[in-house]
Predict the structure.
Amino acid sequence: MVGQRGHDTVLGTAGTPGAGARPVTAEPGAVRGAAPEPPPARPRRPRPWAPRAPRRMASQVLLVQLVIAVGVTALATALFLAPLSDQLDDQATHRALAVAQAMASDEDLAGDLLRAEPVRGNPVQRSAERVRRATGAEYVVVLDRQGIRYSHTDPALIGRRVSTDPSRALSGHEVREIDVGTLGRSARGKTPLRDADGRVIGAVSAGIRYESVRDRLTGAVPQVAGYATGALGVGVLGALAFSRVVYRRTRGLAFSDIAALLDEREAMLHSIREGVLALDGQGRVRLVNDEAQRLLGLGRPRVGEPDGIGRPVAALLGPGRLTSVLTGEVAGTDLLAVRGGRVLVVNRMPTEDGGAVATLRDRTELEALGRELDATRALLDALRAQDHEHANRLHTLLGLLELGLYEEAVDFVTETVGTHRATAEQIAESVGDPLLAALLVGKATVAAERGVALRLAPGSRLLGPLVAPHDLVTVLGNLVDNALEAVGAPGPSAPAGGDDRLVEVGLRARGRTAELTVRDTGAGVPPTQRELVFADGFSTKEAAPGRGGGRGLGLALVKRHAQRYGGTVSVAGAEGGGAVFTVVLPEALAAPEGRVPDPHEEEGR
C-alpha cells in the first residue's frame, strides 16, 4: 500500500520498484510471493490526561443539568445585554435631541443668528455654552443654512463648516444618530432652527459623549452578572439536590447498569418456574411474568388486547381469597388459594412505595400427593387393624376347632367373609366406573376402622361411562373425607358412637348429569357458615401436624370442579342432625356411541 510508513515497495507500470522506494527484504524461510504478516496491533492505553465522562447516572444527570444551567444563564444574560445597549443608545440620542430642542426653543436665538457674525464671543456662542454647561452635553453647535458654525466647544472651529452632513436638519427634519465628528464618537440630536415666520434659518446640534453611554452599559454588566451568578447558583444547588435524589433512587447505578439490570430482570422473570405478580400502591398490576399468567389462567394476550398491566387486581381476578391475599387483606406466609382448579401457595412482600410483589407456586400436584399419602396412611392403618382383627379371628377360629365346635366355626367364618364381600359387591353393582368404585371400597374400609358405617343410599346407581373419572374421584373423595372427619370430630352434637356414626353416599344419573350426595350424622354446618365452607382456606378444624396449614381446600376444590362443569354445590341440614352435601355435574357422563342419550335414562332406578 502506498505511503504505509515507507516500508512497502512502490511498483511502476513494468513491475519495477518505483523511484525512491526501498524493496522489502524477505524474512528467512518465508514463502516467496506471500504477503508479509502485519505486525500485531498494540493495545491502546488510556491517556492519563484524557477526560473521562462520569459513569453513574446521578453524575451524568448532574453534569447535563450544570451544562444546561450555565448555557441558559449565559444566553439569558446575552439576551438581556443586547437590547440594553440599544436602549442606552436610544436614550442618549433622545437626550441629545432634547438638548437641541431646548436650545432651538430660545426666542432670541433666531435673531442673534441672523445679526451675529460667526466669530468668537458672539451671542449665539454664549447662549450655547450656557445650555451645554447646564445640560452636561459634550457640545451644542448652532449653524446657519450654509452649515457654518456659530458656536462650538472649541472656539477655533467657529466660522467653519460642520464635519457631518446637516442637510436633513436644514430641510426641517429632526435627526437622532450615533456618529463620529470632530470630538469623536457621540450620540447626536439635530433639530431645525426657525424664525418667527417658521422658516428654517439654521439648525441646532447637540451631542453626548459616547463613552458615557458605554460607561453606563459597562456599569450595568456587573449588576446583571451578579443576578446571573445568583440564578446560576440557585440552579446549581437545585441540580445538586436533584442529583442526590437520583443517586438515592438509582442506588448509584450507571445507565448501562440499569439497562443490564432490566435485561437481567426480564430474563429472570420469564425463565423462573414461579409466578411473580407486582402491584403498585393502588392495587394495580404493574408486572406479571409468564408463569403467573399460566397459574392465574390469564393466558397470553393477543395483539391489540390488554395484558392486564395497569388494571386493578380485583377487576382482573374477581373477588375471592386469592384477591384478598394479593391485596394484603389476608396476611401471612405460604398462604393457600385456589384458582381454576389449581392450589397455589402465595407469598406477598410489601415494597417501599406502598405496592407489593407476590410469588405464586403451584401446589396442585403436591396437594394431590398429600391426599394420596393421607389415603395411603389411612389404608395402612386399616390394614394394620385388619391384620390385628384377622389374628383375633384366627385365634377364635382355632379355639372353636380345638373345642370341637365345628358347626360354630363354620358359621363364624361364613359371617366374617360375607360381610366384606357384600359391601364390595353392593358398590360394584351400583357404580360402573372402577376408579369410583375402588374409592368407595377403600373409604368403606377406612370408615369401618374408625367405627363409622359407610353405605350407599337406596336407589344409588351410576353405571354410565364418565367423561373425567378423576374429577369425580376428587369431588367424591373430598366430600367423603369431610364427612368422616365430621362424624369422628368431638362436639356437643356429635354422635357418641355405635349405629349413629353413619356416612351415606348417593350416586344418581339424570341423562348425562351426575348428582352426588353425601350425608353424615356429624355436628352439621351452621346456617351462617354454609356459604363460607366453600371459600378458600376456611375450616372449622385445626391444621394437621406437618400439613403447613393446608386445611380448607377440599370443599373449595369441590366447588371449583362443579363450576368448571357448569354445575352447583350446596350444603343443607340432614334429618336427625348432620349435613347433606349435594353436587350436580352436568355433562359428566359420556354419551353412548350411536344414540342420543335419554334425558330420563336411569332416573328413578
